[in-house]
Amino acid sequence: xxxxxxxxxxxxxRGVRSVIAVSSGKGGVGKSLIxxxxxxxxxxxxFKVGLFDLDLTGPSTHIILGTGKLKxxxxxxxxxxxxxxxxxxxxxxxxxDHASPLRGSDISNALTxxxxxxxxxxxxxxxxxTSPGICDSTLDLLTLxxxxxxxxxTTPSNLAFETVRKLISLLLELNASVIGVIENMRMRHSxxxxxxTERLGARYWGAIAFDPRxxxxxxxxxxxxxTEFTKSLEEIAERILRLRxxx
Length: 247
Prior knowledge:
- This protein is α/β, with parallel strands linked by helices.
- It is about 40% helix and about 25% strand.
- The mean pLDDT is about 90.
Protein backbone atom coordinates (compact mmCIF):
# COMPACT_ATOMS: atom_id res chain seq x y z
CA UNK A 1 0.00 0.00 0.00
CA UNK A 2 1.37 3.43 -0.99
CA UNK A 3 2.11 5.79 1.87
CA UNK A 4 -0.09 8.88 1.26
CA UNK A 5 2.70 11.05 2.66
CA UNK A 6 4.82 10.45 -0.45
CA UNK A 7 2.45 12.48 -2.62
CA UNK A 8 2.41 15.19 0.05
CA UNK A 9 6.22 15.36 -0.09
CA UNK A 10 6.05 16.07 -3.82
CA UNK A 11 3.56 18.82 -3.11
CA UNK A 12 5.74 20.35 -0.38
CA UNK A 13 8.78 20.42 -2.67
CA ARG A 14 6.97 21.62 -5.78
CA GLY A 15 8.27 25.17 -5.39
CA VAL A 16 11.91 24.12 -4.76
CA ARG A 17 14.16 24.41 -7.81
CA SER A 18 17.14 22.42 -6.50
CA VAL A 19 17.53 20.00 -3.60
CA ILE A 20 21.11 19.37 -2.52
CA ALA A 21 21.86 16.65 0.03
CA VAL A 22 25.21 17.26 1.75
CA SER A 23 26.41 13.77 2.63
CA SER A 24 29.47 11.93 3.86
CA GLY A 25 30.69 8.38 4.20
CA LYS A 26 31.31 8.84 7.92
CA GLY A 27 30.81 11.38 10.67
CA GLY A 28 33.35 13.95 11.83
CA VAL A 29 34.31 15.28 8.40
CA GLY A 30 32.55 18.66 8.69
CA LYS A 31 29.43 17.76 6.72
CA SER A 32 27.07 19.81 8.90
CA LEU A 33 29.38 22.83 8.81
CA ILE A 34 29.56 22.72 5.04
CA UNK A 35 25.77 22.33 4.75
CA UNK A 36 25.15 25.25 7.12
CA UNK A 37 27.72 27.61 5.65
CA UNK A 38 26.78 26.74 2.07
CA UNK A 39 23.18 27.67 2.89
CA UNK A 40 24.34 30.98 4.42
CA UNK A 41 26.54 31.74 1.40
CA UNK A 42 23.70 31.13 -1.04
CA UNK A 43 21.31 33.25 1.03
CA UNK A 44 23.84 36.11 1.12
CA UNK A 45 24.01 35.93 -2.68
CA UNK A 46 20.30 36.71 -2.83
CA PHE A 47 18.94 33.23 -3.43
CA LYS A 48 15.87 31.91 -1.63
CA VAL A 49 17.34 29.17 0.54
CA GLY A 50 16.20 26.54 3.02
CA LEU A 51 18.34 24.43 5.35
CA PHE A 52 16.83 21.11 6.42
CA ASP A 53 18.74 19.22 9.15
CA LEU A 54 17.86 15.59 8.46
CA ASP A 55 20.73 14.11 10.45
CA LEU A 56 18.26 12.35 12.73
CA THR A 57 20.91 10.69 14.90
CA GLY A 58 22.99 13.79 15.62
CA PRO A 59 21.53 17.13 14.47
CA SER A 60 24.02 19.96 14.97
CA THR A 61 23.19 22.76 12.53
CA HIS A 62 21.25 24.57 15.27
CA ILE A 63 24.49 24.85 17.25
CA ILE A 64 26.48 25.99 14.22
CA LEU A 65 23.93 28.71 13.38
CA GLY A 66 23.12 29.63 16.98
CA THR A 67 19.38 29.34 16.39
CA GLY A 68 18.53 29.81 20.07
CA LYS A 69 14.83 29.36 20.81
CA LEU A 70 13.62 29.65 17.24
CA LYS A 71 10.55 27.51 16.66
CA UNK A 72 8.46 26.60 13.62
CA UNK A 73 4.76 27.44 13.51
CA UNK A 74 1.80 25.44 12.31
CA UNK A 75 -0.34 26.61 9.39
CA UNK A 76 -1.55 23.82 7.11
CA UNK A 77 1.74 22.13 7.89
CA UNK A 78 4.92 23.25 9.62
CA UNK A 79 6.34 26.65 8.63
CA UNK A 80 10.11 26.82 9.23
CA UNK A 81 11.46 29.83 11.12
CA UNK A 82 13.90 32.17 9.35
CA UNK A 83 17.46 32.84 10.50
CA UNK A 84 20.01 34.93 8.61
CA UNK A 85 17.76 35.03 5.56
CA UNK A 86 17.25 31.30 5.24
CA UNK A 87 14.37 29.03 6.23
CA UNK A 88 15.49 26.49 8.82
CA UNK A 89 14.00 23.18 9.87
CA UNK A 90 15.40 20.45 12.12
CA UNK A 91 14.22 17.54 14.23
CA UNK A 92 15.84 19.38 17.13
CA UNK A 93 12.75 21.64 17.21
CA UNK A 94 10.94 18.62 18.63
CA UNK A 95 13.50 16.56 20.55
CA UNK A 96 15.40 19.62 21.91
CA ASP A 97 18.57 18.51 23.74
CA HIS A 98 17.39 14.94 24.20
CA ALA A 99 18.74 12.01 22.23
CA SER A 100 16.35 10.56 19.66
CA PRO A 101 16.74 6.74 19.94
CA LEU A 102 15.44 5.97 16.46
CA ARG A 103 16.28 2.80 14.56
CA GLY A 104 15.22 1.00 11.41
CA SER A 105 11.68 1.78 10.37
CA ASP A 106 11.46 4.54 13.01
CA ILE A 107 14.11 6.53 11.16
CA SER A 108 12.34 6.08 7.83
CA ASN A 109 9.03 7.08 9.38
CA ALA A 110 10.47 10.20 11.04
CA LEU A 111 12.21 11.24 7.82
CA THR A 112 9.04 10.77 5.78
CA UNK A 113 6.97 12.69 8.31
CA UNK A 114 9.36 15.65 8.41
CA UNK A 115 9.44 15.84 4.62
CA UNK A 116 5.65 15.59 4.40
CA UNK A 117 4.74 18.25 6.96
CA UNK A 118 7.32 20.97 6.25
CA UNK A 119 6.09 23.84 4.08
CA UNK A 120 8.97 25.43 2.13
CA UNK A 121 7.14 27.53 -0.42
CA UNK A 122 9.29 28.93 -3.24
CA UNK A 123 13.01 28.23 -2.90
CA UNK A 124 15.98 28.33 -5.23
CA UNK A 125 17.93 25.87 -3.10
CA UNK A 126 17.03 23.49 -0.30
CA UNK A 127 20.18 22.25 1.43
CA UNK A 128 19.74 19.01 3.35
CA UNK A 129 22.19 17.93 6.03
CA THR A 130 21.90 14.14 5.96
CA SER A 131 22.90 11.34 8.28
CA PRO A 132 26.47 10.13 7.69
CA GLY A 133 27.25 6.83 6.04
CA ILE A 134 25.34 4.50 3.78
CA CYS A 135 22.08 4.04 5.65
CA ASP A 136 18.33 3.71 5.26
CA SER A 137 17.81 7.47 5.28
CA THR A 138 20.07 7.89 2.23
CA LEU A 139 18.05 5.32 0.31
CA ASP A 140 14.81 6.87 1.57
CA LEU A 141 15.82 10.28 0.24
CA LEU A 142 16.48 8.80 -3.19
CA THR A 143 12.98 7.34 -3.17
CA LEU A 144 11.14 10.28 -1.64
CA UNK A 145 12.80 13.36 -3.16
CA UNK A 146 12.65 13.75 -6.91
CA UNK A 147 15.83 15.01 -8.66
CA UNK A 148 17.82 15.17 -5.41
CA UNK A 149 21.54 15.84 -5.92
CA UNK A 150 24.35 14.76 -3.61
CA UNK A 151 27.35 16.86 -2.59
CA UNK A 152 29.86 14.60 -0.81
CA UNK A 153 32.23 15.71 1.95
CA THR A 154 35.44 13.90 2.91
CA THR A 155 38.71 14.59 4.69
CA PRO A 156 42.17 13.66 3.35
CA SER A 157 42.09 10.55 5.55
CA ASN A 158 42.27 7.26 3.65
CA LEU A 159 39.74 5.85 6.09
CA ALA A 160 37.29 8.67 5.40
CA PHE A 161 37.69 8.37 1.65
CA GLU A 162 37.16 4.61 1.69
CA THR A 163 33.65 5.21 3.08
CA VAL A 164 33.14 7.98 0.52
CA ARG A 165 34.18 5.62 -2.26
CA LYS A 166 31.49 3.16 -1.21
CA LEU A 167 28.87 5.92 -0.93
CA ILE A 168 29.63 7.40 -4.36
CA SER A 169 29.73 3.95 -5.96
CA LEU A 170 26.31 3.15 -4.51
CA LEU A 171 24.80 6.46 -5.59
CA LEU A 172 26.13 6.12 -9.13
CA GLU A 173 24.94 2.52 -9.29
CA LEU A 174 21.45 3.76 -8.36
CA ASN A 175 21.66 6.48 -11.06
CA ALA A 176 21.62 9.24 -8.44
CA SER A 177 23.00 12.66 -9.31
CA VAL A 178 26.36 13.32 -7.63
CA ILE A 179 27.49 16.94 -7.87
CA GLY A 180 30.95 16.03 -6.66
CA VAL A 181 33.31 15.92 -3.68
CA ILE A 182 34.67 18.58 -1.34
CA GLU A 183 37.82 17.76 0.62
CA ASN A 184 37.66 19.31 4.09
CA MET A 185 40.26 19.95 6.81
CA ARG A 186 43.30 19.49 4.59
CA MET A 187 46.56 20.14 6.45
CA ARG A 188 49.08 19.60 3.66
CA HIS A 189 48.97 19.59 -0.11
CA SER A 190 48.22 16.26 -1.73
CA UNK A 191 46.50 15.18 -4.94
CA UNK A 192 45.43 11.85 -3.48
CA UNK A 193 41.78 12.78 -2.84
CA UNK A 194 41.45 14.46 -6.23
CA UNK A 195 42.88 11.42 -8.02
CA UNK A 196 40.69 8.98 -6.11
CA THR A 197 37.58 11.09 -6.75
CA GLU A 198 38.20 11.41 -10.47
CA ARG A 199 38.93 7.70 -10.68
CA LEU A 200 35.36 7.12 -9.49
CA GLY A 201 34.06 9.37 -12.26
CA ALA A 202 33.02 12.15 -9.87
CA ARG A 203 34.00 15.84 -9.83
CA TYR A 204 36.56 17.08 -7.32
CA TRP A 205 35.63 20.63 -6.32
CA GLY A 206 38.65 21.49 -4.23
CA ALA A 207 40.05 21.45 -0.72
CA ILE A 208 39.27 23.52 2.35
CA ALA A 209 42.30 23.90 4.59
CA PHE A 210 42.04 23.17 8.30
CA ASP A 211 41.04 26.42 10.00
CA PRO A 212 42.15 26.54 13.67
CA ARG A 213 39.91 29.57 14.31
CA UNK A 214 36.75 27.95 12.99
CA UNK A 215 35.67 26.46 16.32
CA UNK A 216 35.46 29.85 18.05
CA UNK A 217 33.00 31.10 15.42
CA UNK A 218 30.47 28.31 15.99
CA UNK A 219 27.13 29.81 16.99
CA UNK A 220 27.97 33.27 15.63
CA UNK A 221 27.09 33.55 11.94
CA UNK A 222 28.84 36.91 11.52
CA UNK A 223 32.14 35.42 12.70
CA UNK A 224 31.49 32.22 10.79
CA UNK A 225 31.12 34.07 7.51
CA UNK A 226 34.47 35.83 8.07
CA THR A 227 36.51 32.64 8.49
CA GLU A 228 39.01 31.23 6.01
CA PHE A 229 36.80 28.14 5.92
CA THR A 230 33.89 30.19 4.56
CA LYS A 231 36.08 32.01 2.04
CA SER A 232 37.28 28.69 0.63
CA LEU A 233 33.78 27.24 0.53
CA GLU A 234 32.49 30.37 -1.20
CA GLU A 235 35.05 29.92 -3.98
CA ILE A 236 33.90 26.32 -4.44
CA ALA A 237 30.23 27.38 -4.42
CA GLU A 238 30.96 29.96 -7.12
CA ARG A 239 32.46 27.27 -9.36
CA ILE A 240 29.53 24.93 -8.83
CA LEU A 241 27.01 27.69 -9.58
CA ARG A 242 28.95 28.75 -12.66
CA LEU A 243 28.55 25.32 -14.23
CA ARG A 244 24.81 25.32 -13.43
CA UNK A 245 24.96 21.80 -12.03
CA UNK A 246 22.36 22.56 -9.38
CA UNK A 247 19.61 24.22 -11.42
